[in-house]
UniProtKB/TrEMBL annotation:
The keyword Repeat does not apply. GO terms for biological process: aldehyde metabolic process. This is Aldehyde dehydrogenase. Residues 5-416 form the Aldehyde dehydrogenase domain. The active site is at E208, C237. It comes from Oncorhynchus tshawytscha (Chinook salmon). GO terms for cellular component: cytoplasm. Keywords: NAD, Oxidoreductase. It holds the Pfam family Aldedh.
């Protein structure tokens, strides 16, 4: 079944159907229409999947997606045009340029935490770049996956952009097929399997993975502002995973977060704005991470609803279990460090994170953090904002991923950049230099 879907997508790609710019624009506009027409259904599916509030869905997924589409529609002619490059003396009268070309059939494998954005944003780039694409949404966000499978063929060309639903075995079956690019979002363990499968066909990959993204709070900062940024259910790849701060401000950080959490009212469990954990397995995993700790804030849970209160744990030892794996849930450990040197050392001796956050009013601290650490992206004095700008490439480095996307970066990621030189035949006299014999006889001619 999967094989036929991929085969059909390839045949349609090879027939050149996805290439004309007008076709790409028309498909992108149709995708835009789908989001406008179906916003309500999409929000309902997300409510069923992760209890996401209706208000959050446009904000967290759809607006960004619509921005991506309108940018691609307005810039496509420019992105797809030949890009002239510098010439040498020998090529001065030739045409020399880089031509972005479609790669072929792209496989997009999405994760459950933003099931629409993580499948459709790469798809926008795949369509814009002239590719066919097979979309495989996560089986964990099942309402969203089946809605996507029902909707996409009504708006997009179904031969070129099919949706395949299913879990591990269906994904593995897909991964046995040959693609021209695989764009995977999810955890690093599966990321390695994807890369292994891709290697068998020498298929390039984009891996949008996760990891532990640190947040350094300097003593020199308005803590009320810093702590306001911790509103989320933690199931975001670039959520701050842990806080680093000096012991002298730890209690004030906890107090600041307590104040922030009042956004949800006295009881987050009854707030329509507070989400739930995706499934029982993840609920148990997150709860197990809390074992043996006393929460400084929160700590309550209700397994029947997969509810975990926003929870802060103080004085977490650097080698505790909470500090080994990505939390991906509403727990926030605080690890104390003696100073900025210690914080930089702490971050640098661990895997390169997807994001780093720094809160400080001190320019020197900010400068040092930026110069002496590395990560996929960084936001200073806020969280996650670098993700929202499609002029910035989004992606990881090292264990947090490979490749980048958003805006033109997605178009470039899913294009081949062909080096083109079209020789001018008017300069044959100059070309004589190259032809044999390469010796003094030529000089005498
Ligand atoms: P998930 O369980 O939905 O898995 C992701 C995809 O991998 C799914 O489509 C699933 O079908 C497929 N899959 C799962 N097991 C597989 C296997 N054995 N073989 C082949 N395919 C398989 O999502 P997840 O991995 O729990 O997602 C959470 C992780 O993703 C976190 O680490 C998070 O940080 C990361 N993430 C990264 C980004 C990013 O943009 N960098 C965004 C969201 C999530």
């Amino acid at each position: 079944m999967e094989m036929q879907v991929v085969q059909r997508a390839r045949e349609n790609f090879l027939a050149g159907r996805s290439r004309p710019l007008e076709f790409r624009v028309q498909q992108l506009k149709s995708l835009q229409r789908m989001i406008t027409d179906r916003q309500g259904e999409i929000a309902t599916a997300l409510k069923q999947d992760i209890n996401r509030s209706q208000y959050d869905t446009p904000l967290l997924e759809l607006i960004g997606l619509e921005n991506e589409i309108s940018l691609a529609v307005s810039k496509l002619a420019q992105w797809a045009a030949p890009r002239p490059v510098e010439k040498s003396l020998l090529t001065i009268s030739d045409q020399v340029y880089i031509q972005p070309e479609p790669l072929g059939v792209v496989l997009i494998i999405g994760a459950w935490n933003y099931p629409w954005a993580l499948t459709l944003q790469p798809l926008v780039g795949a369509i814009a770049a002239g590719n066919a694409a097979v979309v495989k949404p996560s089986e964990l966000s099942e309402y969203s996956a089946s809605l996507l499978k029902a909707l996409l063929p009504r708006y997009l060309d179904q031969e070129l952009y099919p949706v395949v639903c299913g879990g591990v075995s269906e994904t593995q079956e897909l991964l046995r097929q040959r693609f021209d690019h695989i764009f995977y979002t999810g955890n690093s363990t599966v990321g390695k399997l994807v890369m292994e499968a891709a290697a068998r066909h020498l298929t390039p990959v984009t891996l949008e993975l996760g990891g532990k993204s640190p947040c350094y709070i300097d003593k020199d900062v308005d803590l009320r502002v810093a702590c306001r940024s911790f509103v989320n259910c933690g199931q975001t790849c670039i959520a701050p995973d842990y806080i680093l701060c000096e012991p002298s401000i730890q209690n004030r950080v906890v107090e600041g977060i307590r104040q922030t959490l009042l956004f949800y009212g006295p009881d987050p469990k009854s707030s329509p704005d507070y989400g739930r954990i995706i499934n029982q397995r993840h609920f148990n995993r997150v709860m197990a991470l809390l074992d043996g700790y006393t929460a400084a804030l929160g700590g309550q849970s209700d397994s029947s609803q997969r509810y975990i209160a926003p929870t802060v744990v103080k004085d977490v030892p650097p080698h505790a279990r909470l500090m080994q794996e990505e939390i991906f849930g509403p727990l926030l450990p605080i690890v104390t460090v003696s100073d900025i040197d210690d914080a930089i050392h702490f971050i640098s001796e661990r895997e390169k994170p997807l994001a780093i956050y720094v809160f400080s009013s001190n320019k020197k601290v900010i400068k040092r953090m930026l110069a002496e650490t590395t990560s996929g992206g960084v936001t200073v004095n806020d969280v996650m904002m670098h993700y929202t700008l499609n002029s910035l490439p989004f992606g990881g480095v090292g264990q947090s991923g490979t490749g980048r996307y958003h805006g033109k970066h997605t178009f470039d990621q899913l294009s081949h950049h062909r080096a083109c030189l079209v020789k001018s035949l008017g300069m044959e006299e100059v070309n004589m230099v190259w032809y044999p014999p390469q010796n003094h006889q030529k000089a005498r001619r």
